[in-house]
Write a structure and sequence with these properties.
Layout lengths: L13 H6 E2 L22 E5 L2 E5 L2 E4 L2 E4 L5 E5 L4 E5 L13 E5 L2 E5 L2 E2 L2 E2 L3 E5 L4 E5 L8 E2 L2 E5 L2 E10 L14 E4 L2 E14 L4 E4 L14 E5 L2 E9 L2 E10 L4 E2 L17 E4 L4 E8 L5 E9 L4 E6 L10 E4 L5 E4 L19 E4 L6 H11 L1 H4 L8 H14 L11 E5 L11 H24 L1
Parallel strand pairs: 30-31
Antiparallel strand pairs: 1-7, 2-3, 3-6, 4-5, 6-7, 8-9, 9-12, 10-11, 12-13, 14-16, 15-16, 16-18, 17-18, 18-19, 20-21, 21-22, 22-23, 24-25, 25-26, 26-27, 28-29, 29-30
Length: 454
Amino acid sequence: MNNSILVQPLSTFASWIECRRLPQGEVGSVNPDEIYCPERVGHVAVCILDELLVWGGYHERRLGYGYCTGSEVWSYNLDLDRWFKYVPHGNSPEFASGACSAVVWPYWYIFLGHNLNGNSNEMSRLNLQTCTWESVGPEMRISPRDKSVAWVFGSKIFVFGGYGVSPYTTYLWNRETDVFSKENWNDERGWDNQIASFDTLTNQWHPVETRGPKPKARAAHSAVRVGEAVYIFGGRSGGMRMADLHRLDLLDLTWSGELSCQGQRPEGRSWHTMSALSRHKLVLMGGYNTSGQILDDLWLLSLESMSWSILLQHSNRFRLWHTSCANSMGDVLIFGGCTNDILDNSRRMEASDHVLTVRLEPFSLERLCMHRLWRNGYSNQAGWDSLPRSCQLWLEAYKRSNSEINRRIYRCNATSLHGPSLRQLTVLQPDQANYINMNIFELERWRALEQRLF
């Protein structure tokens, strides 16, 4: 997405404010799911400026399991350390896990995935200006699937690979170039290496003819577009989880073949994420290897030297089937995901509701100054009117967020996985959250005592 199109956060739009759902009731009676985005796996996420949007996914809890509702969109702001829940207008898409999403302004497209009826090839979009769901129904569709990857180039959304039903019926498919690799135990489901594009101007799917050695059929892989190329890494094909890296030139649609990289390379994996920190640096995090181990490593791929380097070998933050997005300030925000062996049927799946951050550079001086102004607001608030309008709006947003302290249970939402400590900002840390909660509960206890006495 071209962030220059948007000059203000979505949360300040009147349409989004109208759809915001704030928690009701007193402290202690509020459902935490009304305050913080519930844990999940297989969701989709995107960053719009400095706001992380999350939709869909799947969860398992002590009281049951199921798909996360499709009617809700959650938004997280790292600088505010705050989640907001929205219920957009219109008919929401059906809940799903393993879906794809892509932003072609002003729409956030959500499509494919898996639900109670099996694999899906439905598509919906969220109008980011009006906070309204809209259905998209092209005549010809690609086959139902989940765990595909998608990227945007111009006005088109490209999709590669996935796991789903056999495409040999009325779906868009080229028998000469597209490969469908069947599952050993099920002739009707398997992996594919199809590449197709959705034209957002005509609302139609089209086949994409490419040159060069096409990657193997796969699912649960990762893809990152950098400029005029897209990079594909890993994924599962049959019983193998791969560690191959491919590049597709988006101008002449030519595949590179497996790229040779210097240095130690990450082991084969699926259900991982890869994000762009810049035009020359990609970050790879977590996943699930062929041996059935959940991974907690963090890797950096330099596109200038085509070399891998390890940032963290053992972070103790195990994640698979999570999301990873870069905001406009250079933070990579990793949310959700499974924290134990997802294929171990003897144990309940444990998912995360926490945000991990990755940064390679210090916070900007302006950003640090704004947080310092807020911390010392008791002594400098009288001079806020002399600040630039953008700074005033930032401080006002922080003030509004913190004004709800008396009906919130505070907690730390984010942890720095790599890079500068979040203590440099005003993001709550566990000890700070515990202190606030202690004071809230103490206040409530004294209020209850006063009501009994008087």
